[in-house]
DUF2924 domain-containing protein
Amino acid sequence: MNASTVAPSLAAQITNLPKLAMNDLWTIWDKYFPRRPPHNNRAYVEGRVAYKIQEEAFGTKLVVQTQMARIGEAQSRIKTQRGVEVQVVPGTVLVREFDRREHRVTAQADGTFEYEGRRYKSLSAVARHITGTQWSGPLFFGITKNKAKRGDK
């Protein structure tokens, strides 16, 4: 079998979306949607196309919603210094630039965090490893819960 006749994996298709020329992205959009959005926001177009590709691969919206509910049940709960609880979905990648280097941490389904191939029980443990000093992990990675604007209740 010739490699050019093999369909790319689902992950490869989605990973490739940001690399496509906008005209090629619109071609894929037109396959899934009856009309184009009133704006040309590339991130929006990529996100909607990626969703449709996954929906096509995994089935109907109900199946996707069920899978998302399962993922939601496995969320990690992180307490910030002020005691506010923030939830992080497994697979979320937290990125922080520190000491002229980009650091990426991935939330795991069991509530741990993976950094450079090692598992840590908390984000604070990861921040301590990176900096060599005590840090609040949520503070180090910029995790905050959206606060209500003044006047909102």
